[in-house]
Design goal:
By secondary structure, this protein is α/β, with parallel strands linked by helices. It has two domains: 163 residues, Rossmann fold, CATH 3.40.50; 188 residues, Dehydroquinate synthase-like - alpha domain (Dehydroquinate synthase-like, alpha domain, Up-down Bundle). The chain is built from twelve helices and twelve strands. Helix 3 links the parallel strand 5 and strand 6. Helix 4 packs parallel to helix 7, helix 5 runs parallel beside helix 9 and helix 8 crosses helix 11. It is globular and about 60 Å long. The protein starts with a strand and ends with a helix. The structure holds nicotinamide-adenine-dinucleotide (NAD) and zinc ion. Zinc ion (ZN) binds next to helix 9. The site of zinc ion has 4 residues, from helix 9.
Length: 360
């Protein structure tokens, strides 16, 4: 197939991440050339996208309301029923268009409908372009727990386009910024510094052409790091865990916000930003990084317009961690920053973490 972009080879097949000319695409019709021969193409689209942009592809579309409360098995069942009614058979192809909620749902529905049909994504939020749509984790929430039901099945392509980003609110846009900082903190100290400054001053609704080009470069780089990591460790047995930097505390913060709706709610990216700062503070208390690293992470988060602290005691967050799916026995996989560009996966005793958290 003819394309410019990132080509990831996994043991069982290959995925394209199309990043060619990502700042100049004005429509997504050319993605059809990447859809293999199939019996029919069906679109699963976030209603917020179709309300603003219509259906960008000329194929039957199933609209979904995409939020955490509809990211469940009922929505997956409803999609499968509609596919059935539309006559979708085993050889059909599904395109998911929307943010991470939509791509997680669409990927899951596609991977179980008729025991699995092929699919591709057009992610429309910054977060989904650099993170959620890449890596093949599909799934839905259950009983208030996020992503409890799911699988790992890869899309055939992830079509990156800036077309949709202009309608994102700054707050939703910055959800993706947090994941970008996380990724560069792991893989690229230079981009970590420059992208923090860049994101502090841009707004998706009013970007200049040169800012769009700089954003395109950052998205391509960041999507590439995630894709390459997944190619090396698809099932998260090792290196892929590094991408959870900031997420142990972030998940605890999100759970706390869910359980305390009267308090101010942090969005996922905001929780990741605070989570990276907390992880750095824990790392410093363990003697694994210097104060300079804590400052670098804190300053970058603030520069990028994200919160560096939250109003929840660290010890309370560690209490919540006991329910974290990454906890194995007495220990937790804690992604520990030693320095920017040197982030490691370590097993830490929960009681040790609790002891440290008392003083943070
Ligand atoms: N599969 C993975 O590896 C992975 C990784 C990270 C996150 N996720 C999942 O991704 C989800 C979060 O994704 P998200 O941040 O993209 O959120 P989202 O899909 O909920 O989108 C955020 C909001 O923006 C709206 N929206 C989407 N695109 C828009 C656009 N271009 N213009 C205007 N509004 C738009 C949506 O309708 C929604 O209201 C979570 O459910 C999380 O669990 C999955
Ligand atoms: Zn995340």
């Amino acid at each position: 197939m003819d394309f410019d972009g990132i080509f990831i080879t996994l043991p069982h097949y290959e995925i394209l991440i199309m990043t060619n000319n990502i700042h100049t695409h004005n429509d997504i019709s050319n993605l059809q050339t990447h859809i293999p021969q199939c019996s029919g193409i069906f679109v699963i689209i976030d209603k917020n996208i179709s309300d603003i942009y219509g259906n960008p592809l000329d194929f039957p579309a199933i609209e979904i309301i995409a939020d955490e409360t509809t990211k469940n098995m009922e929505t997956v069942s409803a999609i499968c029923e509609k596919l059935l009614a539309l006559g979708a058979d085993r050889d059909c192809f599904i395109v998911g268009i929307g943010g991470g909620v939509t791509t997680d749902i669409a990927g899951f529905a596609a991977s179980i409908y008729k025991r699995g049909v092929k699919f591709g994504f057009v992610p429309t939020t910054l977060l989904s372009q650099v993170d959620a749509a890449i890596g093949g984790k599909n799934g839905v929430n259950l009983s208030g727990f996020k992503n409890i039901i799911g699988n790992i099945r890869q899309p055939l392509f992830v079509y990156e386009t800036p077309l949709f980003l202009k309608s994102l609110s700054l707050r939703v846009f910055r959800e993706g910024v947090a994941e970008i900082l996380k990724t560069f903190a792991i893989f690229n100290p230079g981009y970590f510094e420059t992208s923090a400054e860049f994101f502090g001053r841009i707004n998706p609704a009013t970007m200049s052409d040169s800012e769009k080009m700089q954003l395109a470069d950052i998205i391509a780089k960041c999507a590439g790091y995630k894709a390459e990591t997944v190619a090396r460790d698809e099932f998260e047995k090792g290196e892929r865990r590094l991408l959870n930097f900031g997420h142990t505390f972030a998940h605890a913060i999100e759970k706390y916000c869910l359980d305390n709706p009267e308090k101010e709610t942090l969005m996922h990216g905001e929780a990741v930003a605070c989570g990276m700062v907390l992880a750095a503070k824990v790392s410093m208390a363990l003697g694994k990084c210097t104060e300079e690293t804590v400052s670098k992470i804190t300053n970058a988060v603030i520069k990028a317009g994200l919160p560096a602290v939250c109003d929840i005691k660290c010890s309370e967050l560690v209490g919540i961690l006991k329910t974290d799916k990454k906890v194995s026995g007495e220990n937790i996989h804690f992604i520990t920053p030693y320095a920017i560009g040197d982030i490691r996966d370590e097993l830490i005793r929960l009681d040790k973490l609790f002891e440290i958290a008392e003083n943070i």
